[in-house]
Amino acid sequence: MAWSPLIGAALAMIASGVIVVARIVYPGPALYIRNANPVFEGPLIASALAILTLALLTRGLHLDGLADTVDGLASGKPAEEALAIMRDGRVGALGAAALIGVLGIDVLALTSNVLVHRGTQALVLGVVVGRVSMLWACTPGIQAARPDGMGALVAGSVPRIVAIFWTLVLCAGATFYGPGYANIEGINSAIQRLVAVLAALAVARLVGRHAMRRFGGVTGDVIGACGEIATMTCFLITAMGH
User: Fold this and answer.
1) 103 is in which domain, residue-wise?
2) pTM higher than 0.70
3) How many independent structural domains does the chain possess?
4) How many angstroms separate the CA atoms of 117 and 20, rounded?
5) CA separation for the pair 238, 2 (Å, rounded)
6) Residue 31: is its pLDDT beyond 60?
7) Mapping DSSP to helix (H, G, I), strand (E, B) and coil, where does residue 39 land?
8) Whether residue 35 has pLDDT greater than 70
């Protein structure tokens, strides 16, 4: 788990390569006009392919965790019954809705970044912040909700100092990974990226803690859900003002 941010960065770079290739094949940005407004089809296809690439590279593991966690939370059942629902291979209506919603937001928010030539930047930050949020869900003091599964394997396994280290590295990267500081625009962009990272970690932490209270601890599904929620939040904030 301690190396997951590096793995996330590698996955993000592969997906970024997909964006670059897709932008060559589907140049845009405005392929046609509809109702006097440009339709940004090229960047949309590139973003969708990048998100699909991430899903394929991770075998949809974290997305599955998101859907299962939402189903468990939405059931309103006691912890033991909710965990049984999460282990069921079927996806409920709310789990499916959450899955579609998060993927849709990811694609649209990433498209907004691609349009202003910040797609790779947003993609790397979003994926890495998702992995760092997963580290915080595995720090000491967090117990597993059940004796088996991924949650039992990784609960409490990440020293707090490791999570702090990666958070600081991520904040530094968010601050300096982008345009220079020669003008106010560069400074504002750096602040926006830093806020995106901190807000993403905070939102994922709140959602994760709520799920842990409901289920009596952490599961692999909850960890995956934290990662997906953090990534989505980061994409949304980095897309603001474009």
Assistant:
1) 4-238
2) yes
3) 1
4) 10
5) 26
6) no
7) strand
8) no
